[in-house]
Amino acid sequence: MTENGPDWARLRQAFELPDAHYFMGNSLGPLPHATRSAMRAVIEEQWSQGLIRSWNLHDWFHLPEHVGDRIAALAGAGPGEIVAGDSTSVCLFKLASAALRHSGRWEIITDRDNFPTDLYVLSGIRDLYPEQVEIRPLPVADIPDAVSERTALVLLSHVDFRSGRLYDMEMINRRAHDRGALVLWDLSHSIGALPVALNASGADLAVGCTYKYLNGGPGSPAFSYVSRELQASLQPILRGWMGHASPFEMRADFEAAAGIRGMVVGTPEVLALSAVKASLSLFEGLDLRHLRERSLHMSGALMATIDGIDGDHGLEIVTPREDSQRGSHVAIRHAQAYGIVQALIRRGVIGDFRAPDLMRFAITPLYQSEADIEALGTQLAEVLATREWADPAFSRRSTVT
Ligand SMILES: Cc1ncc(COP(=O)(O)O)c(C=O)c1O
User: Fold this and answer.
1) Which of the residues 28, 70, 184, 214 could staple to 192 if both were Cys, CB 3.0 to 4.6 A apart?
2) Integer CA distances (angstroms), 351 to 48, 101, 322, 332, 363, in order
């Protein structure tokens, strides 16, 4: 800490950064030095030497809860309310199926523009009970009034993956609870990017990934939150032996472990969880309000830079200008978005493209500075002025955009 808050330059040194301006914290965070050394220890000592004994010696068995508790500190949740493991998609299925069974109702409301996996998971749940389950994809603005006594669950992303719009968690929880419905939040684009207040907003359920703003590594495990209150009655539907009350008794009948552990399904991903545990250490002692303040300042500066680029180029900022309504990335619409992003990457400014016409740039104060924003502005202006986006090299799209 300095007098004015965290020492951002020092925090930046905690990462191994590529020789590029990196704006993809909303897709894959960079590698922290701490992760490299922690992984070496896990592989060379715990796995290589400890082998099977490490399940007890190094408490591998409880890694999902240990990592979960660290995430809870960033999510406004308490110890024992979050467990880490599986992908976000699997966690969504776990919690949505449990919520549906718990409520005894059949309607699920979601944002019609939600992240595709959220919609796909719901469509799978509907196909389990095609006669009963009704999925209602709606514009988010219509959702608070659409919740009724028939609604089991509302599934929403806290920050929209396209526009970067931040939704009002407290208001939506309240409106859903007024009608007896539960809310499941997808925190993939907010965890580690801004303070999340699960408990204070009265949240029931949440999931999120750790490879974006938490820098857990490619394909790192996701997490599931079940409020302490709901834990007493919510039964897992996706059941596995690692969520059993006594897994090594090898009983034929399922009895969920007490608390959040019941949401664990299979064997914990020890290597991947160890990487997340290490990357989370970077957040220790960091007040997320400082991070938020700097993120808003930087995304505001990026939007002002874009406004300053010649208006004839047809750039349209789709991210809300209002501080309270945006997360931590800036999305810009342009008919040639794909080619522009490719040209920027070639120039050492890494952002991404989301079909059909959006480019996204994440703001991540842990390892970015004003110089990155300036570089993005300069390079973007040049790509547009020179029409470099039209380079035939960009006419074929890669598998991952
Ligand atoms: C909002 C949101 N939810 C879910 C996912 C998918 O998560 P996973 O691949 O861990 O299942 C993503 C991936 O980017 C996402 O942005």
Assistant:
1) 214
2) 38, 41, 22, 11, 11
pLDDT per position as a tens digit, 228-258: 999 999 999 999 999 999 999 999 999 999 9
Q: Which atom of ligand 1 is nearest to the CA of 212?
A: 14
Burial class (CB in 10 A: 0-12, 13-18, 19+), 254: middle
Q: How far is CA 337 from the centre of its chain?
A: 24
Number of CB atoms found within 10 A of residue 1's CB: 11
The predicted structure's pLDDT at residue 401: 72
Residue 126 annotated among the catalytic residues of the structure = no
Residue 128 CA to ligand 1 center (angstroms) comes to: 22
**Residue 108 φ/ψ, nearest 5 degrees:** -120, 125
Which residues have C-beta atoms less than 6 Å from ligand 1?
87-89, 115, 117-118, 157, 161, 186, 188-189, 209, 222
Tokens 């749940």 locate to: 125
pLDDT digits 0-9 by tens, 317-335: 999 999 999 999 999 999 9
